[in-house]
Amino acid sequence: MTAQSDLAFDPWNPAFVADPYPAYAELRARGRVLYYEPTDQWLVPHHADVSALLRDRRLGRTYQHRFSHEDFGRTPPPPEHEPFHTLNDHGMLDLEPPDHTRIRRLVSKAFTPRTVERLKPYVHGLANDLVARLVEAGGGDLLTDIAEPLPVAVIAEMLGIPEADRAPLRPWSADICGMYELNPSEETAERAVRASVEFSDYLRELIAARREDPGDDLISGLIAAHDEDDDRLTEQEMISTCVLLLNAGHEATVNATVNGWHALFQNPGQLAALRADHSLVPTAVEELMRYDTPLQLFERWVLDEIEIDGTTIPRGAEVALLFGSANHDPAVFTDPGRLDLTRRDNPHISFSAGIHYCIGAPLARIELAASLTALLEQAPTLTLTTEPERKPNFVIRGLEGLRVAVS
Predict the structure, then answer these.
(1) Domain residues for 396?
(2) Closest to 173 (Cα-Cα) out of 94, 67, 84
(3) Per-residue model confidence as pLDDT tens digits over 374-397
(4) What's the number of domains the chain is made of?
(5) CATH no. for residue 171?
């Protein structure tokens, strides 16, 4: 077992959060699995192990389908956190089969490739409109002017949330997602609980309205979705699914957009090549997702004892799968520290893998390509005006803002 003082991993250190990739290289050199005492987790830094464990059914996003908290050696969450856990624990991201299988199957009936493809004109139109406003203003904050409003509006449109009701969506999401950071504070928990209650109350009313008057939207589709056994989503499962689709449907895209553009500004040769050849956009999207991964870490509970490189990880332990490190593993990626927008052999795991592979990945790719293309076409002289500050968050890693100018 490696003591935490020996590790370069330090998720609360602003310098580490600003650039964790050198520390990841040290972790990979130290071994395939390393114990980190401050979070009581086993860190897994290599691509092959992360990829395999995401598919390993001896691990799970939850353990409550098999064990009580006490049986698993874990302390139940405080009762005052219950609204957050009710919301979170009924979403398919934090469920395991058979509930995960049933809910994902029903959601897939409404969240079809055809549904996503039908959104393409809306996504591209909105991206062009947002960029046109940025150009007209001579610049602005790429985070608040482009990266945030585009995916929030898209998933809200998809769900059928009226435009007048959308203002609280991003703050609710940010407060809820604060609980996914390592060792969140009680203040973070209080904000997450409050947002969970308010968001759930809003969706409960909207779902009731759609039951009375269905529309051509995802919420109506979720209400109607059933299978041959006439299984349907419960009201809580629908609420949790909507929140998950909104949160997961924009958090990664927001941070991938600003992280990606920051990477492009730091690599002017690659940016110049992309401006000269817009056909690079599809591979650029994949490479930017790999190069500065928006979701750095994903957790799994060990449901049945596993062994990694001679180290036994007991049942009841938690592993931290380091996506950012896996995406920079030289065993898989040639010269991983180099941004290469033409990289074709790019098996990054930014959208996870296995049964929890991101159901919204096709939509995220459409959004990222749309905003990137609109900025390349309408703002070919886009420049960075101020070096941005990093948010303190490590797990969902992004910038406080990205100030740009259009000359």
Answers:
(1) 4-405
(2) 84
(3) 999 999 999 999 999 999 999 999
(4) 1
(5) 1.10.630.10
